[in-house]
Amino acid sequence: MKVNEALAPAKVNLTLHVTGRRDDGYHLLDSLVVFADLGDHLRAGPADDLTLEVTGPMAAGVSAGPDNLVLRAARHLHPSRGARLTLDKHLPAAAGIGGGSSDAAAALRVLSRLWDLPLPGDCVVLGADVPVCLDPVAQRLSGIGERHIPAPGLPPLPAVLVNPGIAASTPAVFAALENRTNSPMPSKLPRLDTPREVASWLATQRNDLTAPARTVAPVIERCLSALHNARLARMSGSGATCFGLYDTRSDAEAAAKAIAQAEPDWWVREVTLNPPPSSSR
Ligand SMILES: C[C@](O)(CO)[C@H](O)COP(=O)(O)OP(=O)(O)OC[C@H]1O[C@@H](n2ccc(N)nc2=O)[C@H](O)[C@@H]1O
Ligand SMILES: Nc1ncnc2c1ncn2[C@@H]1O[C@H](COP(=O)(O)OP(=O)(O)OP(=O)(O)O)[C@@H](O)[C@H]1O
Prior knowledge:
Helix content is 26%, strand content 27%. By secondary structure, it is of the alpha+beta class.
């Protein structure tokens, strides 16, 4: 990618343990986060005014107005400087894969280079997922999202992402959560060398938002069933996107093809999670 371009990769919560709730209503999380080799594309050119154009296959319904997280991130970085921004949307919005947060983080990265400014330290105010998206590699996220440390060794993971085209509102899903104090992941995460080992270990962990998300969007059950031949099938974030993990890319490709045929209205993509550096599409 050129210096004024950035990939805003899909974020996937391999685990999402809700461990408590702060007085301000935000929830404490313990989550193993990885990124895909697929995402939105952001370009920035020099300009006097700040403008945004939203293009691409998933642009429908995404505002290009000041509420777009790309423009909010730009104004967070500098209140008045200009740039001509183009956001090519490939990820569904409000889908649990951090589309908006990853776009905001990409905007901070690109504009900090264009405007020669340091990255801000307080970007959690843009969204709980923005800090982890600033450095899109495998990480363990905690606090409400403001804390993250590199995750121990994980291999690249052949996977399929499935979204049924229903937006799951993150506040609505948190509001439907019954038990807000659940156990965290083990304090030391194991080193996992193969997709199979990852799937076996993840099966002992959870996404605590799955049950409330199913009440908000019952179609999530069908997404998980569609991934029945995966080593592990789970929801990401607050849904509705679910992911399946496979042993090989060809297994994932075959599964994606079959699901897309059975559910032509769904968004179905074969991806690699935690890809080797510089292999993004
Ligand atoms: C669920 C996750 O996807 C896990 O990675 C993220 O924590 C959500 O991150 P996000 O979409 O950037 O969330 P924000 O835009 O900051 O928050 C949306 C809403 O989700 C709820 N929220 C979010 C994050 C958090 N740690 N606790 C919460 O309770 C709050 O109701 C908040 O008003
Ligand atoms: N650039 C953007 N792309 C997508 N949605 C955006 C963007 N900017 C603002 N939004 C708004 O943000 C809301 C949440 O979108 P986003 O894609 O970040 O949700 P999400 O995938 O559920 O996030 P998370 O996984 O962090 O919970 C959308 O409903 C949309 O109105």
